[in-house]
Design brief:
The chain is of the alpha/beta class and 184 residues long. Helices cover 35% and strands 19% of the residues. Helix 1 packs across helix 2. 26% of the residues are buried.
Amino acid sequence: NDPTTDSEQIQELGTAFGNTLHGIIFNSVTKWKTRELMKDFIPSLEARGVRVIGGVPEDRLLLTPTVGQLAAYLKADWIRGEDKASDLVEHFIIGGNVMDSGVDYFGRVTSKAVIVRGDRPDIQLAALATPTTCLVLTGGHMPIEYVGYEAEQRDVPVIVVQDGTLDVGEALGGIQCEATVHHP
């Protein structure tokens, strides 16, 4: 956007507040916009007499869903670990036919939910061998006893959804709208 046009619009909005406006704070400033904000936008506003108090950096962790929000969003059934509903899910990984070592593939990130077909215990166990926040089994399949045991030993919640893996992956595109900062 053109900083001059934006600063004109902000000045017009600020005029409506009169003397009650003490200044402006920019929210969710990405690290890529910080330079532009400091170099162009803030000086343009200050030249127009608008006081800028500062900026709050973007923190995507504030938009991270919890395991409970994930389960509710997917209309999933809890198999185990409902006491971990407030744990954050920072990443989603789909457990398909992994050509590399499963541990290498799933070990790339932590704080993750692994979405995997419920009839693939080999992939589920590979995911459980790495730091995993939640296991999402698709296709309505219950985990086999050994997967349930490993999940219990590692204290990993397991939820089951009726939809297929690809459908769940597509549905997760809208979960940010459900995530709130109202969690521990």
